[in-house]
Amino acid sequence: xxxxxxSPRHEVTEMGQEVTLRxxxxxxxxxxxxxxxxxxxxxxxxxxxxxxxxxxxxxxxEDRFSAKMPNASFSTLKIxxxxxxxxxxxxxxxxxxxxxxxxxxFGNGTRxxxx
Amino acid sequence: xxxxxxxxSHVSVSEGALVLLRCNYSSSVPPYLFWYVxxxxxxxxxxxxxxxGATLVKGINGFEAEFKKSETSFHLTKPSAHMSDAAEYFCAxxxxxxxxxYFGTGTSLTVIP
Lengths: 115, 113
Known about the structure:
Number of helices of chain A: 0
Largest sheet of chain B: 6 strands, mixed
Oligomer: heterodimer
Structural class of chain A: mainly beta
Strand content of chain A: over 45%
Shape of chain A: globular
Helix content of chain A: under 10%
């Protein structure tokens, strides 16, 4: 089991540029979550998917943020255009069931710096 | 509404001393409970979880936590701190009938040699 795989690990970009973060969940997991972590706001849920369908995107900060899950093994989080305040660590996590006691399994995150 | 409170954003203990990290939750029904650890530049890693059954749960790295329904608490303990325990610790709850996790704000543990 390779765990949740995120790429890239680090991303440095200039304000106004498009940024795409990628996630491969654990095989067989049917829920996928995107989180953002900053010193000021801690861990924030951005969006989550069940069976590739977005269920709750109320945490997506603005229309500049979008997320897709075209299949069970891949998801993207896109920021267009990026702003310095988007600088954070973005985590993807997956879990096995839609209800019940299955824990979240986190990737190692993507550290985004927008200058 | 669910909420998770971790008392003490920073905790320092001496090497070999008891570690106690506090977590209280508010929930109308007993939720599933989790503790995660985050080392620098890494993702969150599951330490242990409580679902049903025995209220004292043992996890990895010698940690354990006790679910106390009457106190709505799930405190994390370790009898003897090791330098490698220095990390950020997060408590999380999940309502049984919802696919939503609620995280505390985290406690940074420092171990003093």
